[in-house]
Amino acid sequence: MRTTTVGDLRILLPDLDPDDLDTISDPTGDLSDAIIEDASWRGAAFDDIGIRGSRLTGADLSESTWEAGVIFGCEITRTDFSGTTLSGMSIERCAVTGSRLTGTRFTDVRLKDVLFEGCRFDYATLTRVAAAGAVAFVDCVLTDATWSSCRLPDTVLRSCQLARLELDSCHLQGADLRGNSLHDLKTGLGNLRGVTLHEDQLPDLTQLAVQDLNLTVRKR
């Protein structure tokens, strides 16, 4: 069993043996124990597809549509999901590294034991995304993204770019936001209830409070 630790969070990761994987180029049907390299499935439609125990590298899945289905036990590297729509999906025990999710739309997606590292989520929209287990974002770009009605308790964000990230009606109780700048975060204080911060982030939190409460601050 392969694991990694981010902050205080322990994440189960896929443990793939390349000798057990077969090279696949056709996205039709469930994909299990497969190696998918440099495939171009731009604009493809996936309905209730299952991808299990597979490794995706350098694939172009931009502008594709995913309805229901599951991605389980996969390593996804340098893959382009920009402009993609994922709805009703379950993503579990996956490591997503160096991938592009610019403008990607997640709706009713369930995450469990998922590590996003070095990924771009700028302008992405997460709506009713829920964490059923460990989830971490490390060195990710989340600028100008929107999280709405998401339930991501205990999620860890580390060394991420959060400028103009908008939080709306989100539940982040127990989330660890240490190691990120909160400057220009677009959120009311209620979305940050119960999160963990470092003392160096308190000036940014104070500025958020001034904005949220519409305070007038004067020197004298």
From TrEMBL:
InterPro entries: Pentapeptide-BTB/POZ_domain (IPR051082). It comes from the Bacteria. SUPFAM superfamilies: Pentapeptide repeat-like (SSF141571). This is Pentapeptide repeat-containing protein. It comes from Micromonospora cathayae.
